[in-house]
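So, can you check this record?

>
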Amino acid sequence: MIEIFAQLGDGFIACLHPTTMLMLLLGIVVGLLVGVLPGLTLVMGVVLFLPFTYKMQVTDAIVLLSAMYVSGTYGGAFTSILFRIPGEPIHVPLLWDGYAMARNGQPARALGWTLVAALVGGLLSAVAMVMLTKSVASFALRFSSPEYFAILVFGLTSVIALGSGSLANAVIGLALGLLIASVGTDPIYGAARFTFDMPIFADGIEFLVVMVGAYGVGEVLSRLERGFSSKPLATISSTKTELPSLAEVGQVKAMLLRSTVVGHIIGIIPGAGATVAAFVAYGLESQFGRRRAQMGSGVVEGIVAPQSAATASVGGALIPLLALGIPGSGATAVILGAFMLHGIQPGPQIMMTSSAMVYTIFASIFIGIAMMCVLGYFAIRPLVKILDFPEAIVSAFVMLFCFVGALAIRSNVTDLWLMIGFGALGYLFERYKFPIAPLVLGVILGPLAEESFMNSMISFSNDWTVFFTRPIAGTVMALAILTLSLPIIGLIRNRRKPSGPPSAPQLSSVGGAERVLTPEA
C-alpha cells in the first residue's frame, strides 16, 4: 500500500511537467467542448485527436486522450439541463430530471448537483482504479496464450451482448471487423492475405483509418443526408452553478455511493461504457430509490445517479485496459490504439515495465477531474457558446481533422481513399442500424486474438480443448458463452410473449426537431 502511494506521488510530480500539464488542460477543455456539441460524440472526439498523438511522448498522448474521456462524460450535462439537448446518449437519463429541475426555476441548482456527482463519482472511482489495477495485473501474470485468447473472446462477446439494437447486426459488424483485421501478412507464417498485390496492404489496414472513417466521416455523411441546419442549435442564457451544502450532500450520500459503485463495476465490463452505466444507475433509482415515484419530475436523485455513474465508469474502464489490454468502452478502445501506435501493448507486464507511466496516468485522472469541475463551475457560458456555430461549419472542421489524421499515419494518399470508403461503410451502418463499436473493436482486437490463438495451437499441439480444460481459460470462456447466450435467450422469450400495445417513446426536441431517445452502448 505504501509503495502504491509513493508511486502515485511520483505520478503527481510527473504531471507537473509543463508539457504534460498542457496536454491535460487541453484534453479537459476539448472533452468539455465535445460533450457540449450534439452529434460530435465522445468516442468520435477522441478518435479525431488520436492521429495528432503519433509524434507525442506516449505518456502525454494517453494523458490527453484520458482527459478528454473524463471530461466528455460531464460536458454534455450543460446542454441537457439548460436546453434539453443531450450532447450524446450518456446524458439522456440526466436530461429527464435535470431539464425538469431547470424548468422549475432551478437550473443553477441542477448544475451544482451535476458537478458534485461528477466530482465525487470520478474521484472515488479513481481511488478504486489505483487500488485494483495492480492486483488485477498481478493475477493476470499467471496467464498464458490460452488465457489471453479467452479474455479477448470475452471482450468481443461482451461488445456484442451489450450493444443496442439487433444482435445479428452486431455479430455481422464484428465479423466484418475481424475480416478487415486479417488483411496483410500473416504474423505466424508470413503469408499474404487479401492484399490484391497492393504493397500498402502488405502491412494491413491501419485501425486508425477504420476508426476515423467509420466514426468521423460516417457521421458527417449522415448529417449531410439529414440536411444541415443553418441556425444555431440554441441561444445562450444567463445562469450560474449553485453548489449544494454539505448537509444536502449528506442526505443523498448512500445513493451517491451506490451509483458510483454501479458505474465503476459497469465500466470494468468490456464493451459497456458510460452510457450503459448512466441508464442502469437511473433505472435502479427509478425502481428501488427512496423517491422513485417522483423520478422524472426534477428530483436530485435523477441527476446525481446517472452523472456519478457515468463519470465513475471511466476509472472502471481503465482497469481492464491497463491490466489486461482489453478496452472497457469505445473510448478506451481508442486509447488502446494510442498505446499500440507507440509500440506499447497494455497488459500485466505494463505495471512492471512502465509503472512510472501508469501512475502518471492515474495521477492525471485525479487532477483532470478537479480541473474539469473548476472549469465547469466558472466557464458555463463559454462552453455552451459553441452551440452558436452552424452545423455545417462544425462538420467541415470534422472532415478537415479526419483527412489530416488519416494522412498523418503513413503519409499515403491511399489511406485517404480507404478512410472515405470506411466513412461510407460507417454511414451505411448508421443508416441501417448496425452498431459501429463491434466493427472497430474487431479490427483492433482481431490481430491480438489471432496471435494468441495461433501461439496456443503451436504450444499445445493443436489441442483446441486447452481453452476449456485450463481453469482460468475455461472459466473465462464459460463467461463469454454465457454473455453471448443471455441476449439470445432474451430474444427467444420476447418472441414467445404475446404482443401488447406499444409503449410511447421518449421524445426530445433537438434543434427544433423531435427524435426518439434510445440508449446506445
